[in-house]
Specification:
Number of strands of chain B: 0
Order of helices and strands of chain B: HHHHHHHHH
Number of helices of chain A: 9
Oligomer: heterodimer
Strand content of chain B: under 5%
């Protein structure tokens, strides 16, 4: 995964005091952080509190974030440590080693490859995935292809245009329309 | 702040921005508007969720409004001074040494001294990397308002769970409390008694033998400076 320049810019803005930029980072990563914390804490309400605490800690620590790691990798580490500390504070589990950036990166890759997936994790992930995949299935083929090439294969707009044999403007429009159609359904689930 | 729904052409630009496919100038324009519009930020958050789901990266649906709760918590803590004025404050202090900086340094020194005089407490040490304060705030320098109940006015559910986040003997509480200085060892009466007089001559800094005599002062008891 390449450097996320949007995150870099958002972090820079947060460091100059912009809370809206931090709000956007929270909105981007809340679902992944929620899933991550639930791997450690089964109680839903408790896990949400810990996820919230992780974001607050990230806000406090952001002045010291120098961008050596990707923002999400750094946030991942904070969330794992917050969850572990929470368990230790309740005497539920002995303290374990902190994770460093390298380990966080490795865990993220493993996470993407399903190596660390547990049945509970699969079930939690399934809810969101099922909804998104069902919505993607209902898309027009050209919208589905453009979105998949972008999100799954990570191609740039120019590469997608070449692959699909259409102008870049069309690619841009197709990806937006695909997102908009999926979002119409996702919005109801996420903001009932 | 939420404005009127933006037209689709702007949202299409926003989608391109999300993919990092906008030129710098257009990206700045989009970001400026995005940061002023709650609904747009929420939409970008859902787009991210869609991409994560397609990549089969773990996700879970929170039952509560996490971004809203995080923002409320940050605002509350900033209001009572726990996070100072946000992430900006430490940067300003680092780049612009000022009188305020000197006061902070003094307060930090007092706080450090107080901590060193306190018996070691495992619970007071940050347990993990994430606990290490990245934006250090000296305990002694925290404003009195920091001790205000942060959970006042919260719904019952938040009140009931909040104490779990800050254990009574945990690092947070230890950092908030300033150890009393009266724990420092007090001098004994013998130590306070005046020292006996000692007959010791003062020793001026050795001067060069070639120094002009007019500027040489003799402090010696048993002879002149040149005898030494």
């Amino acid at each position: 995964m390449g450097v996320d320049h949007n995150d870099q810019e958002l972090v820079r803005r947060v460091q100059s005091g912009d809370r809206s930029a931090f709000d956007l980072l929270v909105r981007k990563y809340q679902y992944r952080i929620a899933a991550l914390v639930r791997r450690y804490i089964r109680d839903e309400a408790e896990a949400e509190d810990v996820a919230q605490e992780a974001f607050v800690r990230a806000w406090r620590a952001l002045p010291a974030f120098r961008g050596d790691a990707q923002f999400y990798t750094w946030l991942y580490r904070i969330a794992v440590n917050t969850a572990k500390n929470h368990l230790v504070s309740l005497g539920r589990r002995p303290a374990t080693e902190d994770i460093d950036d390298e380990e966080a990166g490795a865990v993220r890759e493993a996470e993407a490859l399903h190596d660390v997936a547990t049945p509970e994790h699969e079930a939690l992930r399934g809810e969101m995935e099922a909804l998104v995949l069902a919505a993607v299935e209902r898309l027009a083929p050209e919208l589905r292809e453009a979105l998949t090439l972008r999100e799954v294969e990570g191609l740039a707009y120019e590469e997608i245009a070449e692959r699909m044999g259409c102008p870049i403007g069309t690619v841009r429009s197709r990806i937006f329309r695909a997102r908009d159609a999926i979002d119409a359904q996702l919005r109801q689930l996420l903001n009932p | 702040m939420t404005t009127t729904p933006p037209p689709d052409d702007f949202r299409e630009q926003l989608s391109a921005w999300h993919d990092g496919a906008l030129p710098d100038e257009a990206a700045r324009f989009v970001l400026k508007r995005l940061l002023q519009d709650d609904a747009l930020r929420a939409e970008v958050g859902r787009w991210q969720a869609v991409g994560d789901a397609l990549r089969r990266q773990g996700q879970a649906l929170p039952c509560v409004d996490v971004p809203g709760r995080v923002q409320a918590r940050i605002a509350r803590e900033a209001a009572v001074g726990v996070i100072a004025s946000g992430p900006r404050a430490p940067q300003r202090a680092a780049h612009r040494p000022s009188r305020r900086g000197a006061l902070w340094a003094g307060a930090a020194a007092i706080g450090l001294g107080a901590l060193l005089l306190r018996p070691f407490d495992d619970a007071a040490a940050p347990a993990t990397l994430a606990d290490r304060p990245a934006a250090p705030v000296a305990p002694a320098a925290r404003p009195a308002a920091a001790f205000v109940d942060l959970h006042a006015g919260l719904p019952a559910r938040e009140r009931s769970v909040a104490p779990r986040m800050i254990p009574p003997d945990g690092a947070t509480r230890s950092a908030m409390e300033v150890p009393p200085l009266v724990r420092a060892p007090q001098p004994t009466p013998e130590q306070l008694a005046p020292l006996p007089a000692v007959e010791a001559p003062s020793r001026p800094w050795p001067r060069s033998a070639s120094a002009p005599a007019a500027f040489t002062v003799d402090y010696s008891v048993h002879g002149s400076a040149r005898d030494r």
